[in-house]
Amino acid sequence: MPSTTGPETTDYDVVVVGAGFAGLYALYELRRRGLNVRVIEAADGVGGTWFWNRYPGARCDVESFDYQFSFSEDLVREWVWSERYPRQEELLAYLNHVADRFELRPDIQLGTRVSSAVLDERSGRWTVTTDRDEHLSAKFVIMATGCLSTARLPDVEGLDSFTGDWYHTGAWPHEGVDFTGKRVAVIGTGSSGIQSIPVIAEQAEQLFVLQRTANYSVPAFNRELSDADRQACADNFPAIRQFARQSMLGGSWSGNDVAAMAVTPEERQAIFEKQWEMGGLPMYVAFTDLLVDQRANDSVKDFIADKIRQRVSDPAIAEKLTPSGYPLGGKRICVDIDYFETFNRDNVELVDVKANPIERITPRGILVGDTELAVDTIVFATGFDAMTGALLSINIEGRGGRTLREKWHAGPATLLGLAVSGFPNMFLVTGPGSPSVFSNMVVSIEQHVDWIAEAIDHLRSKGLQRMEALPDAESAWVDHVNEVADTTLLPQADSWYTGANVPGKPRVFMPYVGGCGLYRQKCDEVAADGYAGFSLTP
Ligand code: FAD
Ligand code: NAP
After folding, report:
1. Cα angle 83-85-90, degrees, rounded to a multiple of 5
2. Across the chain, what does the average pLDDT equal?
3. Strands 365-368, 358-361: pairing kind
4. Which of 20, 46, 165, 348 sits in a 20 to 30 Å window from 304, CA-based?
5. What's the rounded Cα separation, in Å, for the pair 222 and 8?
6. Distance 193 CA to ligand 2 centre (A)
7. What is the pLDDT of residues 39-80, one digit of tens each?
8. What are phi and psi of 392, to 5 degrees?
């Protein structure tokens, strides 16, 4: 228990790093269980992803009724989602509402970055140090630092010399950017590029889209929600969420329990069409074998390639926009609103930077091959140092003074993506080795926070002080994560799932892809078995 209470306190039961979905729910849940909790957040507001990613067109690609907290039925009933896929503004408003509604703010310190977390082995407590040179002592540390929170600029020379404006989608200015009358280049065609390009194209005088790898994208078929939609969701919410928790991807999408290769080509086409019309991520679950059988994967790739040809008027451009060379799903599928149609506009030009790589940024623009694209503004939609970036930018020192950076030099190793051997009483929310980014993350975040809260309760009720992943159990889990990934086609792609987007980052397939339902069952079994695989010490 804390030595004192109130804002001057520096001793806490739990320090949580991050105030996105994960940090907010961790604070709510642990405080509800009587713990003294402090949340430290680098941003000047709560919301995490939805605080930082304010680029034009930013919205979630999991439907609103799935991408929301389930811990309060009142919250589910009182929050009015306006669209099937809420915009960033609405998601940020929702998370601010949660912070106010549950009086979370007094325990959140904003505008403060955690620089280190060091274990004192004698006391068993963690000292968390911030960039304001504060030192907080905590029995438990929860890293709710986000999987996609460390924005990455590519290693391209010359940005300092650029005389125009430039932005990264993941750190967008709050006042917005007016592209009217501007010549703009967007680098990157992942989800952030695919969402922002159609909106920027409507404003800009000229837009160059610099594509290195074409991506698979399914239209969102976004729409306004009606009162009847909202009522149906609120009335059925417990069942909807229960289904999502037990599903493969943590969503309530209905799929088919049949393999693509087990039906005729005509039946396959009809099922793909049906799934396509649902819009967005349900495409993943059109058939059971899409991510594990090359022929099944090829069949969905062909289906999407046909759709691209239908959406893009110029066959040569359609060809360039058609993904190839990696399996569908190997890079996260994107969900778009008019992305491909944007290339039918006169003011939009697709620039193939695989054929002619970006040489450097010049004072006037971007040198691609030997052609200089003169632009006023560059938008980097170039992604994140995903899953490990935020964790490894904190100096985390565990037993024997060993740092997490040293421990993970060959790639992340965790037990269940929740804990790391050598780092007692430190927990990760949606860490590598858990379904995390390969799921509807709100469902995965809630599951992790609930599991951690239960574990801490267990320790307290038994008079135990310390919980630590055992090295053997951790190794076995890492092997299992790799084995499951290797039964799929997913590791074949150069993606941020494997760290391939960051030069020098170890190549490890980081998410657990055995499915949310199965993973939850494994976590529950570990807990029911007295936290098998962990050492619990008095
Ligand atoms: P975050 O929201 O990333 O919050 C982590 C917080 O920790 C950040 O605010 C960060 O500032 C803070 N932090 C990190 N390091 C430190 C430090 N050292 N000191 C202090 N604070 C620190 N997922 C989905 O399931 N569906 C979607 O549709 C979806 N859309 C997305 C769209 C975008 C543009 C992006 C980037 C991601 C999207 N994601 C989506 C993933 C999204 O990150 C998660 O859904 C979810 O918001 C993660 O919540 P979090 O709290 O775990 O992390
Ligand atoms: P991303 O998927 O990593 O895409 C980055 C893009 O930048 C890729 O097209 C990449 O090309 C390109 N790129 C990077 N360096 C480059 C270089 N030097 N030259 C040319 N191109 C370069 O990042 P993201 O789009 O920000 O998305 C990350 C994740 O966040 C998503 O997968 C998703 O999970 C989440 N997200 C979700 C939504 C949503 O719809 N709700 C929106 C945004 C983000 P290569 O592929 O060739 O490396």
Report:
1. 70
2. 96
3. antiparallel
4. 348
5. 47
6. 7
7. 999 999 999 999 999 999 999 999 999 999 999 999 999 999
8. -80, -10
